């Protein structure tokens, strides 16, 4: 080791996109969704342990860039994530993300990872985890409205965690639906492409909406939704972006991650600020009721909360141990004498010259 | 290019610690401090262009982890930074940092860089920039109280930007002082190690305090500070951490970066919330007066603001162009079809198997 080689303390494990894909294919998507959901459930069940704050958003006319920090006192995590609906027109992702986990005791990062793919996984794992508490008994059919980047993950999560056997697909773009049909061909799911939202919802006990327009859209109207269904609403996740007609919300028992955030970003931004909602963690700990009866309409108004990313970061930190699916990132300056930052820079120059 | 190779859009330029040190030694520390100060001044002078918010802090008993975001509408930047005074006991840095710059139009990151070293540079560049507006005419001697990781950068910045020719050093640990003496031996500065703060301040027109204890400390008492000096107070930068006796503050004209943040974190947390202060950007644009006369005591109550990191990120983005002093980081998942995230993962697995 020469003097310019970084010390071990300075190296942060980094999971690149390529390594995340290797990890997923190594573990298997459905196994990973199940394992992720366990980490997410653990953290929901110790809700009070977390330092919670609504995400820090920087809005522009074309999108949003957000930082989502949280801590349980031992570890600190945050995610950087953007949302730019117009990006797909230019061949870019609507949502990209990366995240970091750090040690609270020292402030040193212990993991940096891509989170574009990981976010799709954690969102699907959270949806299906909520589904385990909220879907009607023996729900086997799910309508998947919106067949974008997250839809396969949603379908597989409900398959793995909730016993869904059939997914009925609709998208305003048939090419998106065809893509999902192709991608799920070997999944064990019965996959039915549909020509309308109504057709997709035929016989479905679970309705997942995941569309991308940043606008008050009405993907589901009131008369499309009968009793005894569970709605998993993914797409309404920022101010001005909703998918459901308000009348549906008034008929539904509404479950949310973190009310302070969901009232700003979720479907319930359309409702009065004191409209009753139930917090998901309370359902998981048994402090609140989930589904009341077979006829109820339950709605998981998902916006994605920082603790879910924290759980996902914990999971990846644990899961890469002993593997070669990460690389050391020379991110932290760590001189032998912590007070001698300048000397470290100067000596590096001496050896370079 | 195979299908698992990331596309160009997915690759974010990354400046490691090793490359940052190469860049500094390539440009030269004093040149870099001057160039950095120009970027910082440009951004202070367009203060209204920035989306400003106090940093998002996560405090624990042993330290703090902070995110400092800002945007000018074109670019978005944030810095991750910790402050753990006890870290040096374990051979770790008190402060480590990294940062990111992104394109507001797409939300895609365009730079990830180490910022432990860069923060020391931007802090020193900001101090000396403020000094250009506030120090007494013909100030040539600076007392440097606290000889830790930032002190050499402060000395060189005042040398490069303010014409300081002599620095007088004091630290409670003589080894720290000896380190600075060693590191500045070839700098062109006259370097005088001193046995007390009082001795360090003999004949000094500029007093820089940069100590690290997270406590209400009194590095400078009232009777130590005569008229006609400029105080550059670096170390008081979080709640409960100050360096100056309140009586000094009452005698001084106080200049700050962003009052909303400085009143929480700076020396002025010891004063009434409406105590008059002057914003640095207003001095730079000529809207407010800097030094009133030769007798005034001026105080720059530095806490470090997000725009300064933004300026530093802009500078690094521009400065690495055409060099090999960065590496591509496979941080963003970028499938050929943005909606086909799942297919990208699946195909990567197919090629791996």
UniProtKB/TrEMBL annotation, chains A, B:
InterPro entries: NAD(P)-bd_dom_sf, ODC_Mu_crystall, ODC_N. This is Ornithine cyclodeaminase. It comes from Lacimonas salitolerans. The lineage of its organism: Bacteria, Pseudomonadati, Pseudomonadota, Alphaproteobacteria, Rhodobacterales.
